[in-house]
Amino acid sequence: MQLDPFHLAFQVRNIAEARAFYGDLLGCSEGRSAETWVDFNFFGHQVVCHLNPEMGPTGKIASHANPVDGHGVPVPHFGVVLTMDRWKSLAEKLQAKEIQFVIEPYLRFEGKPGEQATMFFLDPSGNALEFKAFRDIETQLFAT
């Protein structure tokens, strides 16, 4: 499956926090930057954290949650689909770092088309992220 990289720009309350979270914790390499923004290679995609000093010390929180498989999925959110091994490794790393999950790592839609491992957590500014994985990305990613 050939995928073109996406570009996503979003607000953060603090650039240093964003560097620590996306760079150090998630392992995203840094690209271009200025005093008020920084690019990251987010698993092959370009995300840009733009400083919004009006966010204040608590940042923002997801504005809505939709019920999916018995959980309240934060909306908006973004993330990436990983291989199952990479997903498990990241979940273990985040658990070891005692990251607070919005939705703990688990298997969603178990036994159904589109069965997937998923987890949700917030960055320091309150942006919701979802990381998911399928046993076979090619056949399951868009399964109905």
From TrEMBL:
Residues 4-134 form the VOC domain. Transmembrane segments: none annotated. It comes from the Bacteria. Pfam families: Glyoxalase. This is Glyoxalase-like domain protein. It comes from Gimesia aquarii.
